[in-house]
Design goal:
281 residues, four-stranded mixed β-sheet, 7 helices, elongated
């Protein structure tokens, strides 16, 4: 990589669920519409990430952990997320804009047979549409369930972190459109420092449940290029609690396969030698 690695830090504590990021992503990248039907489970008409949903804002309704009506305003933060959904003060909304994680160890890269998936000079992972052959190997390889094939097309699509904009020195469309700076873009190391400070601020303000997700370079995917500040367990947001690169065991598997192949060849050679020996008698 010739450029400094960049990424996303999504602070869900200031997300207001406006979906400006979804709209900006679709408009800039010419992503087709993906259905406008409500699930009847929440105010969500996109449901999950997919081939035609590169940004997805989740709406999660749950009882408040401590009865407060909104998150406290923290000095240095963009704003406070209003969590009131009524006058009873018993429920809150958790909102979060999800996206491809652009993993450090990306299994989708490992399994792609055509080189359609590649890592850019910015450390992001991109699909080249004109090279994708629609094999679909990358779909089950992703530990987050991000990448998907489009129906009636077969090719795989996902967030590119606006690779064309990065090349022009611009920030991705979603971060540019976010009105509360919930989606922050920049050098990954700088974002990690900023995120740790934000968690400390929230803890000091009494938001004990605030925690980071995907920021640790020592986790099962080597850290994510897009990580999050969450206000509950990852599972609440539909995120795996301990993601692991699905191709982690491939080297060991190839090693065992090689040993087995050599053993088989050795057995065949031994049988051939024994047969040849009997023929000379």
């Amino acid at each position: 990589m010739s450029e400094e690695r960049v990424g996303f830090f999504t602070d869900t504590s200031v997300c207001i669920g406006c979906k400006a990021c979804e709209v900006a992503c679709k408009e800039w990248n010419a992503v087709p519409e993906d259905g406008l039907s409500l699930t009847a489970m929440s105010y969500d008409n996109t449901q999950a990430l997919g081939a035609s949903t590169w940004r997805h804002v989740a709406f999660i309704e749950q009882p408040r952990p401590d009865g407060r009506t909104q998150l406290p305003v923290v000095e240095g933060g963009s704003t406070a997320q209003e969590t009131a959904v009524g006058g009873d003060g018993e429920l809150r909304w958790l909102m979060s804009s999800d996206v491809c994680k652009h993993c450090t160890h990306a299994a989708c890269l490992d399994v792609c047979p055509t080189g359609s998936l590649f890592r850019t000079e910015f450390g992001t992972v991109v699909v080249q549409e004109d090279i994708c052959n629609g094999c679909g190997y990358c779909v089950p390889a992703c530990p987050y369930g991000v990448i998907e094939q489009r129906p009636h097309d077969g090719r795989a699509f996902k967030c590119t972190m606006c690779y064309d904009r990065l090349g022009a020195g611009q920030e991705p469309a979603c971060a540019k459109a976010c009105p509360t700076e919930s989606i922050q873009f920049g050098p990954l190391d700088e974002l990690r420092e900023r995120a740790a400070l934000r968690v400390d601020q929230l803890h000091e303000a009494g938001v004990a449940e605030a925690r980071l997700y995907g920021h640790d370079p020592d986790d099962g995917v080597g850290g994510d290029g897009a990580f999050f500040l969450l206000l509950d367990e990852p599972e609440v947001y539909g995120l795996p609690p301990d993601p692991v690169v699905t191709t982690r065991d491939l080297p060991a598997m190839w090693k065992h396969a090689g040993v087995a192949a050599l053993s088989l060849l050795g057995g065949v050679a031994a049988c051939f030698a024994a047969t040849a020996g009997r023929g000379r008698r």
